[in-house]
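Regression check, adenosine-5'-diphosphate case 230:
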Amino acid sequence: MTNSPPDSLLTAHDLRKAYGPTHALDGAEFSIHPGEVVAIMGPSGSGKSTLLHCLAGIVPPDSGSITYNGRELTKMSDAQRSALRRSEFGFVFQFGQLVPELTCVENVALPLRLNGSSRKDALRTALGWMERLEVDDLKAKRPGEVSGGQGQRVAVARALVTGPRLLFADEPTGALDSSNGERVMGLLTEAARATNAAVVLVTHETHVAAYSDREIVVRDGKSRDMERSV
Ligand SMILES: Nc1ncnc2c1ncn2[C@@H]1O[C@H](COP(=O)(O)OP(=O)(O)O)[C@@H](O)[C@H]1O
Ligand SMILES: [Mg+2]
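Current build output:
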């Protein structure tokens, strides 16, 4: 049994992860409700990305539990975890990680193709998401031909195209200037809220965290909830 609250989407308890002598996670706690936007904050090297990778089932913790929708991630097989990632999770990283050989709309359509959609259906749904992220005019361009901010909006469209219940974003605006960062965050949170996707947002910037409902601060691999002063 776990002590996860019944209405939580994802809960982690006492996560520990060491890389040699470095305790990247040292008893981190986390929980998020359906549709909630939670920012994970903290200085560089504090364990934010490690926490995100553990929560998303990408990196196994050394110990501790992670429960998604009543199922314990740490007890699933690798195949079950990747199926869960493909069907329920979306990912946005600091650098879009778009496939350079594909056009932008083909990039957005890719997760649907991998899940078995026909090319025609996948491209149509992808274009709808590109309109939502205001990048549909870039559909025929390749990632190398668009700006950083445009590429991140394409990456957000790709992350949301499968209708994930949980979006993981690790410093999604970290490589952008502040006006492009604001635009990406505005569109990302608007699209997530419209589809009731919860968002785990890693950032070290307070103006980015301001888009969240709640903030968690990680320091030396330990996490705690922050009270908002506004
Ligand atoms: N794959 C890895 N191998 C070795 N050390 C790592 C690895 N990933 C993270 N670390 C170390 O763990 C600590 C936390 O890293 P990270 O989670 O990336 O922090 P943050 O995202 O907050 O900058 C750092 O000291 C980092 O150097
Ligand atoms: Mg990081």
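Comparison notes: The chain has one domain: 10-225. The two ends are 37 Å apart (CA to CA). No diff flagged against the previous build.
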